[in-house]
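Give me structure tokens for this 202-residue protein.
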Amino acid sequence: MSPARERRTHAERTAETRERVMKAVVDAVAQVGFARTTASEISKRAGVTWGAVQHHFGDKEGILAAVLEASFEHFSEVVGEAPEELELEKRVTLFVERAWLHFGSARYQSTFEILLNLPAEVESPWQELMLGGWQRIWGRWFPESNPRDQATRDVMLYAVAVFTGLATTQNLERGNARGRERHLRYLIETLVNDLEREGNLS
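Here you go.
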């Protein structure tokens, strides 16, 4: 007699459905593009009705916001915590290497296309959420800087811009890993120089 299957809780079923829907959005955007990621396309890929999707997310904008939040959570998990007592250059190098694991992934490709097509009512709150998240992560990794200072903010947003730029061009530069590595080295050098300057000024 086969053992009885363990029944899942309502919370587990809800989490599984939400995960399926968000994965369906990411996969659809990657494979057919944002414009063709319709309600019916999402429902078909997730294996649920659009009514079930609405029950969990409200509407398409709600799904997009959830996907973006999950993407940032993935970034935060990949970057993790800064190793204690690591000198600045090694800390910056490790941060850049870990951050690129997220920005260089297929998941981020879909995230970026969603960001480019966000409706205004989702874009503004998301930008504030992302900025706050980046400030918290940046403050943990680089305590010698002040994430709320404009100079620090500029350096942080420069890093975001470089990661995003490299992510958007990597599909056009397949096989040009050396060029990408060179740009990441430039980013490391820039961050080290700017963070050293900030540390001396503080």
